Structures are given as structure tokens and as C-alpha cells.
Amino acid sequence: MTSIASxxxxxxxxxxxxxxxxxxxxxxxxxxxxxxxxxxxxxxxxIAYAMPKIAKQWHLTTTASGWVIAAGGIGMLIGSxxxxxxxxxxxxxxxxxxxxxxxxxxxxxxxxSSTLAxxxxxxxxxxxxxxxxxxxxTCYIGEISKARHRGRFVLLYETIFPVGLLLSxxxxxxxxxxxxxxxxxxxxxxxxxxxPILLRLPESPRWLTARGRIxxxxxxxxxxxxxxxxxxxxxxxxxxxxxxxxxxxxxxLDLFRGRYLRHTAVIxxxxxxxxxxxxxxxxxxxxxxxxxxxxxxxxxxxxxxITTLVGVVGCVLVALLIDGLGRRMSIAFxxxxxxxxxxxxxxxxxxxxxxxxxxxxxxxxxxxxxxLALYLYTTEVFPTSMRxxxxxxxxxxxxxxxxxxxxxxxxxxxxxxLHTLFAIFGAIALAGALIFGLFAMETKEKTLEEITA
Length: 453
Fold this sequence. Notes:
It holds the Pfam family Sugar_tr. By secondary structure, this protein is mainly α. It is 79% helix and 0% strand. It has a single domain (7-232, 248-451), classed as MFS general substrate transporter like domains (Growth Hormone, Chain: A), CATH 1.20.1250. Helix 2 (24-57) packs antiparallel against helix 3 (62-90), helix 7 (160-179) runs antiparallel to helix 14 (297-325) and helix 15 (327-348) runs antiparallel to helix 16.
């Protein structure tokens, strides 16, 4: 049976973390965990760029292609929920490491699949790992960061995910036309080399404290402090911080009780709408360009690279601005601008692949930034004992959107007009902007314990 940390224990560990200057240790941890997240992003988008070849190989309709894409999304949805529950029970790092190993091995399985059914099974299982890794990794990075400039610290780490998307699109634009999609999935095995580095990272001291493992938390903190002081940094004395919510075992139902009900509803709806738009568009753009506008595969992939590149720029901008503007304004304003651009796409840009690329790239500047910022915001509004569960619930809602979005696109491309598709995405983005802008709480520059006190 897990013991419960006292308020004094929680406050003491938090105070020791808050006094740490940003150091090489922080950067090392951010790079190591970020590399895992990089390959998560790299692997997630491979399916979009391989889809034109896969559809041709197995003679798939657009609706059937949508289900192949959605198989991974369904796995990610389930993985998000399972990963959060495991991370709150057994720790952040075991889940990050296990998820990485799982999605890497499944990528190799996809490369070697001889039938569509086997490919879809491997894609689904890969989704379990992909869905679990990012929310839990974000919890870890958020828990080792301090209140001051936490938004920038966490989001600059998170930017590695869209960079993974970008490099996936660049690699795919060469690999798929020249050597085939199977070799693209073989590269998904690369993250295994990170295993020795990850095994040396300490567990989150905040999580250890929340589980009542005070001696382990003290040992982890001492190890971190010694590494920082060995690099020449001088640690100031700890200053008192609020103890936060009482540490206790949490269940999924706790997300829907008391003060957390509002946070859960706002987060779930915003994740759903944002990922619906983001993945509905990005997972289909190469196929849309080749199937609807009949451009070459190489051109289609290059167009998709541009869209992803603009999205990465948006991620960097939100990382630099979110501590000044605040979470609520950054997320609501970006979603509102994305909605406006999608409505304009529906009105004026559905006549050519080039116009669609330009307007979708403009909207990706804002949609990508919101996708990133939601991870940060969700880690902040839940206490340590249920943080991974809360982030994973948000991630699961996002994955539900990532399933429904591609399915809607596949169905509309078979049955509806292109301008209707972009109008629907605009309306969904606008709904997300309104709900978040009206009901989200502001969390900037507060300690995690202060937010949940």
C-alpha cells in the first residue's frame, strides 16, 4: 500500500526544485526526453506520407484509407489513457521508456508487413506507445521545471515534437518516391539507441513525493543538486511554497469531481477540437494533393513539408510568447485566427493545390501552436497525484479528434465538396477558441503547487 506524503514533505521538495537555476542538468534532461518525443512526432506523421503508396498498393478507397490512418489514432487514444494511469502509479520514466520501445518495434513491424491486416494491427499497437509517450514525457518535464518561465522551458522542449513532424515530412519526401515507404518505417527503430541515456535519468521528485516515497525523492533531489553544483552553480536557500493539493491516489472519476470538473471539460473539448482540425488536415494533405488535384507525389510531399515547417514556426513563437501573453489568450487567440483562415480557405482557396497549400500552411501556424500549448496548460491545472492522468485524458480527447478528423475527410472527399470540408474545420476551431477563452483559468508564473492549492 502506498503511503501518503505530508503537506510539509510536498512543500519541501517543491521548494528545492523551485530554487534550482536552469542548468546543464535541465538541458540534458530536456534533450534526452525530447529526443524520445522527437521520434514520436517523426513516427506519427509517417503514415500520412506513405499513404498514397499504401493506398495504391492495396487498392484502397479514400474512406478505407481513412480507416487505416484512424487505426493508429484509436491506438493513441487508448494509449493516452493507459499511459497516464500507469505513470501516476509506477512513475514517469518507466512509461516513457516502455512507450518508446513499443512504438519503435511496431514501426519495424509495419515495414515488414506482407498484408494490409497485419500492417493495420502493427499500426494500432504502435499507436498505444505513441499515445502514451508524449503526455507522460510532458508531465516529467513540467515537474522538473520551476514556475518562472515554465511556459518557455516546457514549450521549447515540446517544440521537438513538431520538429519531428517536419523532419519526418522532409525524409518522407525523398524516401517514399525513391526507395519506397517500407524503408521509411525502418527508420522508426532508431530511438532504441536512446535507451541507455534514459535509464540514467532520475524519476520526477514531485511524483516520488506524491507517492509517499520521501527517501527516494530526497535521493533524486540530492543527485540533481550535486550535478548542478558540480557544474559551478550556487544554489540559493529554498523559499517556502504552497503545499498544493493533498497527495492521494487518484482515479479517472476524480477528473470529473469538484474543482477539476471544469478543468477537465475545458481541456477535453479544446483538445478534441484542436486535434480534429490538426490531424484531419495534416494526415490527408498528401493524398488530397495527388487524388483531388492530380499533382505528382513529389510535389505533394514538398507542399506538405512547407505546411509542417510553418507549423513549427508557430510552435517556436508560442514558446517565446506564452509566458508574457498568458495561456488563455495564447490558446484562444490562436484557435480563433486558425478558424478565420480555414473559413477563408473554404471561400477562396479550393480551386488549386497551391492555394490549398498556402492557406493550410497559414492556419497550421496557429493550430500547431495550440497543440503544443495544450500540453503545457494541462500539466499545470492538475495536482501531481493525478497530473499524468489529466494530461492523458486530454491526450485521449485529442486522439479521438485525430481519429474522427481523418475519417470525416475521407468521407467528404468521397461524397462532399472541398469547401464544405474547410468550413467544417473552421467552425470546429472557432468552437474550441470560444470555450477555452471563456472558461479556462490563467496559470502563468505560478508554481504547480500554488495552482492546485
